[in-house]
Amino acid sequence: MIGHVVCAGKDTPRAEVQRERILCAAQKCFIEHGFHAASMANIAEAAQMSAGLMYRYFENKSAIVRAIVERQLQDGRAQIEQLHSSADLAASILQTYRSWLGRDPAVMNPALYLEMSAAATRDPQIAAALQDSDERIFEALQAWMTRDRVDRGLGLPPDIASGRARLLMQVWNGLAVTAVRHPDRDPAAMRDVIEKFVSRLVTP
Amino acid sequence: MIGHVVCAGKDTPRAEVQRERILCAAQKCFIEHGFHAASMANIAEAAQMSAGLMYRYFENKSAIVRAIVERQLQDGRAQIEQLHSSADLAASILQTYRSWLGRDPAVMNPALYLEMSAAATRDPQIAAALQDSDERIFEALQAWMTRDRVDRGLGLPPDIASGRARLLMQVWNGLAVTAVRHPDRDPAAMRDVIEKFVSRLVTP
Amino acid sequence: MIGHVVCAGKDTPRAEVQRERILCAAQKCFIEHGFHAASMANIAEAAQMSAGLMYRYFENKSAIVRAIVERQLQDGRAQIEQLHSSADLAASILQTYRSWLGRDPAVMNPALYLEMSAAATRDPQIAAALQDSDERIFEALQAWMTRDRVDRGLGLPPDIASGRARLLMQVWNGLAVTAVRHPDRDPAAMRDVIEKFVSRLVTP
Amino acid sequence: MIGHVVCAGKDTPRAEVQRERILCAAQKCFIEHGFHAASMANIAEAAQMSAGLMYRYFENKSAIVRAIVERQLQDGRAQIEQLHSSADLAASILQTYRSWLGRDPAVMNPALYLEMSAAATRDPQIAAALQDSDERIFEALQAWMTRDRVDRGLGLPPDIASGRARLLMQVWNGLAVTAVRHPDRDPAAMRDVIEKFVSRLVTP
DNA sequence: CATGAATGAGACTTCATTCAT
DNA sequence: CATGAATGAAGTCTCATTCAT
Q1: CA nearest A184 in B: which residue?
Q2: Are A180 and B118 an interchain contact pair (Cβ–Cβ within 8 Å)?
Q3: Contacts 24+ apart (CB under 8 A), D126-129
Q4: Cβ atoms C160, C151 nearer than 8 A
Q5: Interatomic CA distance for residues A76 and A70, integer angstroms
Q6: Model-level pTM?
Q7: Which residues of chain D are within 8 Å of residue C93 when distances are taken between CB atoms?
């Protein structure tokens, strides 16, 4: 399964269910209006609870923001991990790109991804979370690229793998920007670019 | 020199000087706080004028936002144009990346770039401006790549140039994200990645 | 008792009590300063609540204005209805005139009546409300005048009743203007004029 | 000629021309937006001069308001005087009513008339001006009604004339209210009412 | 005489947050 | 545990008035 829990099951403790409900609502509102413009009242309404109650589960609006940031990072990492487990990297990237256009709440939202990246400029906590997550991604990619091909790795030498991992992350980021700026562009048009890029990326 | 005039001279008609003053201040505040969180009072203070006066020069806060967006796009295009006129593409990209870390107000600000990309999701006017700007960039890049080498082009066949132009834009976007998320990373560390990427990009 | 409830009881649901409180305060402020010059802060203070809270009960300042307009029209109609139920029309008109001088908040306020009439020139919603209310008053008067005397009507033929109803409304309006422009004039001085006017009005 | 100077001639002193220009503009704006909502900037634009310049000719916005009030009263009196000089009182009243519907700037504007009546409630200066003007009108009407018929009077005894003058003023006021509230009502529909009213008014 | 840039107060409105119920 | 009424600060914007030019 990809990403965080979208709808908690019966056995989850009550508090956790409530937190989940709030975060689902908040994500929806943040995507729709942005972190700042979404109001606690918006979120409360989307979560079908009173505004006051949310303060039992989150200290602050900004605590909710941080939690959403954390979730988005999680979701992003989950998508990245899909890449290595896939036999066809290009197809997998294209699939990720498609998922970004689909506004699926269970998947990292690229507009939020950009907004929280910008927010990192002003909020050290967010900045730290982002850097940490990127570091984890980088390490995972590098590990995969250096791993032997018989272990489903790419079998690249470490010094090369490092650069390629970085480059893949750049393109990943770039695709997120493109998904946001050109939501109507046909993903199929990206296929060629991605395939050529990937073919060089995996070649020793 | 890259980008627009940061602070207009005294010979400009007064109104233009004021508009400039306001836009300089607004850009500073938007970078510092974000489009939404920066208040008209913030901007007024930075511009050293009363908040009311700004309404003589801009209809709205959102008119100021649009003007800043337009300027950022301009600045971005100016930087892209630097790329073709340069003999060493990799060095030029690296230089751009460095400029993003430098918080130079005369240069496109990557945090703003991300925030306005996210804003395009909610504001059709901004979305249109970004798409238009991207289209212009794409065409310029493609023209440069297909132009003959004796004319300082790359001499690539059109069908290949198109994909390479897109790929370059992806990486450019990705670098902007990286600049925002990792402002402390040493640009020199990017050199290798960029150089390898470029060497393949310009090779027929 | 004439007119609407001035201050709702504690048994009403809270929201209704608050709406009432706001409207009472608003009416007071509008009478004192005019629709436009009365500020939301004025009203809030008179209602002894924070300005922000009023927006829980009314969308707008202009929603409050409309509500007050509606109430004034209601109060006016209630006073007109007093006329037919009265045995002595002249005395009843004089009584109405006296009530206008008394600044009783439960009774149509003539200054507000004039101001909202003027406002109808600029606001189609208000215009429609006034025209509708006038039409209802006209029909009620006409019905009363044509009704048989044994049914407490005036027993006038329809074609005459119509003109007399209009004329009565003119004089009623004229009295409102006079009440506003000459608040210190002794109502007794009006007695003769009114009595003669009435004696001719009810005569076939 | 009826009413105040609408457009001053060549020989008028400069200051007077300017005052006139301002007052014409102000009247237009006040009619359009109301005393309060019309801004000095609106007026300045309508008068085709700078906002600052108006302060050379009027101390205040409220001085302009007072001047307009004075003019409206003048215009009203001019219309009342038309009544006595006319052979056919009913026709003359109807004609006045028609002029109110016509938005002729040279004629008393009924919406302003109502608004300034309401304003008299709050501003003692305006109240005094209105009462004074009404008194002058009353005296003129009474004089006309008591004057001998050979001198174009109505030849009524003084005690009766007094009441009739008041009644005529009420109806006049009432018509102003009607003109404002029912600008689309056909004036011809008023003919009957007015004629019957007048026939009784002038009958000893 | 004339302009219009500039200000400061104040208008309407929104919103995160608290707290009595 | 839950509500939603209540507040106060803050935000955007308008406007009468002044004054340097």
Answers
A1: B131
A2: yes
A3: D126/D65, D126/D66, D126/D69, D127/C181, D129/D66, D129/D69, D129/D70, D129/D73
A4: no
A5: 10
A6: 0.91
A7: none
| C103 part of contact set with chain D, CB < 8 Å | no
* Closest residue in chain B to residue A120, using alpha carbons only: B181
Q: In total, how many domains does chain D have?
A: 1
Residue at C150 is within a domain? yes
Q: For residues B13 and C77, what is the distance between their CA atoms, to the nearest angstrom?
A: 61
Which range of residues forms the domain containing residue C142? 14-202
Give me the helix-helix angle, D124-146 and C158-181, nearest 10°. Answer: 130
Q: Three-class SS of residue C141? A: helix
Contact criterion met (CB < 8 Å) for C134 and D182: yes
Question: B81 phi and psi, to 5 degrees?
Answer: -65, -30
What's the CATH code of the domain at C175?
A: 1.10.357.10
Which residues, other chains included, contact A7 with Cβ-Cβ below 8 Å and sequence gap of 6+? Answer: A20, A24
Among B112, B103, B162, residue whose Cα is nearest residue A189: B162
> How do residues C128-141 score in pLDDT, each as one tens digit?
999 999 999 999 99
Instruction: Give strand E nucleotides closer than 7 A to any protein Cβ.
Output: 1-20
Q: What is the CA radius of gyration of chain C?
A: 18
Separation between Cα atoms, residue C195 and residue C93, nearest integer Å = 9
Q: Is the CB of D143 under 7 A from strand E?
A: no
* A178 CA from F9 C1′ (Å): 39
Query: How far is it, in rounded angstroms, from Cα B93 to Cα B82?
Result: 9
Tens digits of per-residue pLDDT, C34-74?
999 999 999 999 999 999 999 999 999 999 999 999 999 99
Q: Is residue C7 part of a domain?
A: no
What is the C-alpha to C-alpha distance for residues C156 and C161, in angstroms, rounded to an integer? 6
Quick: pLDDT tens for D104-147.
999 999 999 999 999 999 999 999 999 999 999 999 999 999 99
Residue of D nearest to C160 (CA): D193
| Strand nucleotide closest to residue A63 (CA to C1') | E16
CB C3 within 8 A of CB C44: no
Query: DSSP secondary-structure letter at D102?
Result: T
Structural domain contains residue B118: yes
| C194 in a structural domain | yes
C87-93: long-range contacts, CB 8 A cutoff, minimum separation 24: C89/C198, C89/C201, C89/C202, C90/C191, C90/C194, C90/C195, C90/C197, C90/C198, C90/C199, C93/C172, C93/C175, C93/C194, C93/C198
